[in-house]
Amino acid sequence: MKLQFWGTAAAEGIPGIFCGCEICSKARAEGGRFVRARSQTMIDGDLLIDFGPDTYSNSVKYGYDLSKLGNLLVTHSHMDHLYAYELFNRQPGYCHNTRCEALNIYGSGGVRKALFADTQNKVQSLFDSGKIAFHTLEEYVPATIGEYTVIPVPANHGTEQPFVYIIEKHGKCIFYMTDSNRFTDEINERIASLGKKFDVVVYDCTFGTADTVAAGTAPGHMAIPVINIVRNQFRQLGLYKPGAIEIIDHFSHNGENVSYDALEPLAEKEGLITAYDGLVIEF
C-alpha cells in the first residue's frame, strides 16, 4: 500500500491564513516542509481521506486527476475535512469526461447530515443526477470500498459521529486516527476484539510536544505525551505488527515545537515519523 500525505495541518493550515505568529512567519520564510495544507491523505491513488478546502490545489500540486476519483472517505464534518461546496463542481456542465461517473462518499450519519445542512440541501441535485453518492457507515461494521475493507471506529472529537478508520487491503492494515484524542478503555477493548494488527498507525499530533495531559486541555486532539499513552495501551493489547510504522500528523501552529525542524528530531527520538506535505510511505 502507498500513503501520500497531501496535507498535514489542522484547520488553519501552516501558515495560518491571517496569522503572523512566529511559527507561521517561519513557514512563509522557509517554505518546503514548514508549509502545511489542511489534513488530507491519498491511499494508492484511489481512496482519498477527507475533502477539505485545499483539495483542488493539492490535486494540482501532486499531479492527481480528480476526474478519476471514485471513493472518498470522510472522518468528520469540520470544514477542514469536508468542504462541501467544492462538490458542486461535479454538477452537469461543470465537469466532463469523468472516469468515475459518481463520486462515492463514505462517512457517518453525522457527516451525511452536515453535508446537506452546510449546502442548504442544494446538494440533492448532485445525488439526483448521479454525480455523487453517499454511503452511511456504522461504527465497527466493516464496509467494502473497492479493494479495501474499512472499519469505522468512534473518534474522541467534537462533531456528530466522528470516525477514525482501520483500513485493510491485501493483508496490509492502517489505523488512521486523525482527528481524535485517546480512546476509552471500552473502545480500546472493542478495537482489540476485531483481531486486527497494524502495519501503519497515523496519530493526531495537533499540539506537537505540549503536555496536554497535565494541562487538561485540547479535547479532541493529541500531542506526543498523549500519543505515548495510546502507544503503550496499543502495545499491551497487541495491536502492532513487528516493525509497525508510526506517523504523527495534523499539526496546529498553536502547538509546541510544531515547526518541522523542531518537531522532527524530537519525534524521531520517540520512534515516530513526522509527516509533511508530500510524504510518501509504501509498505
Task: Report a brief summary of the structure.
By secondary structure, this protein is α/β, with parallel strands linked by helices.
- Termini, distance in Å? 6 Å
What structural class do helix, strand and pairing data support?
A: alpha/beta
**Low-pLDDT residue intervals, each spanning 5 or more residues:** none
Return Rg in Å.
18 Å
- State the share of residues found in helices, binned by percent: 10-25%
Q: Order of strands across the widest beta sheet?
A: 6-5-4-3-2-1-14
Q: What best-fitting shape do the alpha-carbon axes yield?
A: globular
Let me know the number of strands.
Answer: 14
Q: What is the overall pLDDT average?
A: 95
H/E element order: EHEEHEEHHEEEEEHEHHEHEE
- Bin the strand percentage: 25-35%
Walk me through the structure.
This protein is of the alpha/beta class and 283 residues long. Helices cover 24% and strands 25% of the residues. It is built from eight helices and 14 strands. The protein has helices at 22-30, 55-61, 109-118, 124-128, 185-193, 212-215, 224-237, 260-269; strands spanning 2-7, 40-43, 47-49, 71-73, 103-107, 132-136, 143-145, 148-154, 163-169, 172-177, 198-204, 240-249, 273-274, 280-282. The strands form two sheets. The chain has a seven-stranded mixed beta sheet. A seven-stranded mixed beta sheet has the order 7-8-9-10-11-12-13. The protein starts with a strand and ends with a strand. The mean pLDDT is 95.
